[in-house]
Amino acid sequence: MKTRMTELFGIKHPIMCGGMMWLAKPELCAAISNAGGLGNLTSGNYESGSDFRKAIAKTRQLTNKPFCVNITFLPSVRITKEMHKEYFEACCEEKVAAVEISGAPLDRYLGQDAIIQAKKTGVKLIHKLGSVRHAKHAEETGYDAVIAAGFEEGGHPLNDDVTTMLLTPRISESVKIPVIAAGGIADGRTLAAALVLGAEGVMMASRFIATTECQAHPRIKEELIRRQESDTTLICRTIDLQMRALKNELVHKVLEVEARHGSIEEIIPLISGERSQKAWESGDVDGAPFAVGQSIGLIKKIVSCQELLDGMVQEAEEILANVHKRVRG
Question: Are 72 and 19 in contact (CB under 8 A)?
C-alpha cells in the first residue's frame, strides 16, 4: 500500500504511532517500525536531553527503520520550555526521520529558526492538529505533513470538537501537504475509511497499547478490551486543557471537582504524570486518567505490532477492493 505518507517517511505501511506518555519508548517504537509502520519515541518520557539521546540510541539498536519523535508543547509542571528545546535540538542533531509536534505550533513556541534547523538536517515535521485554520498555518510555515486529529482521539483533542469523519476531508481539501487521519482508528476498516476521506495514512495510539510489545500492565490491556466506545469522557475543560480519558474512579473525581468549580490546584495532583506512570506500571485501573480514545471499542485482542499492521493493511485492501466491485455492479 503506497501513499504519499509511505513515500515521505520511507515506510511500508501508512500507519504511525502517536505520542504516548510512559509507553512510547524504544521497545514499542522499534517494534512498530520493524513491522513497517512509523514508530514513535515520546520525548516527554525523559528527564533531560541527554537521557533522551540515550533513548534514541537504544531505539536505533533495536531497529534500522525510520521512526518519529513526539514533542508536545502544552503546559506542564515537569517539562520546561528549555527541556522542549533540548528534545528538539537532539532530534535535529541525531537526524531522526520525523518530529510529530502537538500543542502549540513549533514556529510560535521555539521560533521560525527551529523550522529552518529541521529542514537543514532533513528531519520531517508533522503537526497534529484539529482544525483547518491550524492546518493552513502548518503548511504556510513549512511543515511536511499534518495529522487531522478528530474529537474521538485520546489525549488532548482541540476544543473545536470536530470529528475525524468531517475533519479529515476538510483538511485534505484545504492543504496540499499529506494529511494523516487520527481519532477513532484501530483496524483495517477505519484505515480504509481514512484513505477514502482523503488521508494518506493514519495515526493510532490507543490500539498500540493492546500489543505484546507495549509495556503497559497486562491488567490495563485487558481493561481496554473489556471497555466500549462509550467508556471515555472529557476532563479538564474548565482549566483549558481538554483531555479524553477512560472512565474510572479517578476521572470521576476530576469531574466532581470541575462540577463544583474547583481550583486548578485541586485538579493538577489528580492528573499528574507521576500518578499516571505508576498506574501504567502497577495496573491500577482506577488510579490515574488514562488518555485513550473512543477507538477502544474496536480493540478485541492483544496482538503483536507485526500482526496488527499486516492485518490492518490486508483488511483495508480487501474492503477497498470489495467496495469497488460493489459500486461497479
Answer: yes
pLDDT at 328: 79
| Burial of 2 (C-beta count, 10 Å sphere; 0-12/13-18/19+) | exposed
Q: Where are the domains of the chain?
A: 4-215+300-328, 218-294
Angle between helices 305-328 and 26-34 (to 10 degrees): 40
Q: What is the DSSP letter of 114?
A: H
The H-or-E segment that residue 39 falls in is strand 39-42
Q: What is the pLDDT of residue 76?
A: 86
Place of cell 476531508: 169
Percentage helix, strand, coil for the chain under 3-state DSSP, each rounded to 5: 50, 15, 35
- The answer to whether the predicted template modeling score (pTM) of the entire model surpasses 0.85 is yes
pLDDT of residue 229: 98
| pLDDT on residue 324 | 86
- pLDDT at residue 80 in the model: 94
Residues of the chain with pLDDT under 70: 329
- Cα distance between residue 280 and residue 290, in whole Å: 8
What pLDDT score was predicted for residue 307?
Answer: 98
Q: What's the one-letter identity of residue 68?
A: C
DSSP secondary-structure letter at 187? S
Pairwise CA distance, residues 65 & 40, whole Å = 12
Angle at 100 (CA atoms; ends 111, 230), nearest 5 degrees: 125
Sort residue 227 into left (φ over 0), alpha (ψ -120 to 50) or beta.
Answer: beta
Q: What pLDDT does 232 receive?
A: 98
Contact 288, 247 (CB under 8 A): no
DSSP state letters, 270-308: GG-HHHHHHHHHHT-TTSS-----GGGGG----B-HHHH
CATH architecture of the domain 4-215+300-328 equals: Alpha-Beta Barrel (3.20)
pLDDT of res. 12: 98
The answer to whether 9 touches 97, Cβ cutoff 8 Å, is yes
